[in-house]
Amino acid sequence: MYGLKTLEQERNKIEKTKIELADSHCHLDMLDASTIKDAVEYGVSVMISNGGSTKANLDTLKIADEKHVFAALGIGPDFTAKINDEELKFNMELVRSNSGKVVAIGEVGLDFKIAKNFEEIALQRSVFEKFIGLAIDMDIPVCVHSRNAMDEVLDILSEKKAKKVQLHFFEGNAAQAKRAAELGYFISVPPTESSKRSNAIKMFPIDQIMVESDAPAAGANPKDVERSVMIVAKAKGLEFGKAAEIIVSNTKRFFNIGSNKFIRTGGS
Fold it and tell me: How far is Cα 245 from Cα 256, in angstroms, rounded to an integer?
């Protein structure tokens, strides 16, 4: 078992160009182009940039190069109370009309911490269910935001028979982690360590784990997935390089990157 300090020392001994990293959830529309370029040069070969609002979705499409930066579009729970039916339809059509460029629906979900009343909870649920249906119709993954709502999120996903699910910034308890793992869902680990999250990582098969920076909300930039890999490696008792290799493979497989549809990966 490695401590984070030991892992950092180990990582520093390895040439950065030989370690490939992947950021399964970030918001690159909120970062400048130099930050993205710097991350690629550091070794972050794949970044899934999530929208969440109309503006974020449009901006995400502009920066997705389908080589290092890939787009996920959706309406997050923090915007459901501000959106009307016409705008919601616009965003759903935006996903459909860019099916060759969009690798996932995201981020969407439930956030009971910010919901002010039952009406807002109902709105969050309605929008969430619509985007799950769109993801199923298009056969692409759904990237899920869940705060104070994990049981409800798992119930909805299960009822809708969603298969390709990423539980981003996973904060579930042991029972929820067990249920999510059995459903075949993936979790993504942010660059913030907690005993609760470490216990969840231990319960998930390594081939259902990804990492994320959630930059700029959690990490400062996509390079911070390095710390996320360290957290996974520590929980799983793996060497950093091996953990990174598995996680990159998981991420490309989950988002169908490297397939005939999204063939351009890696390189400069």
Answer: 16
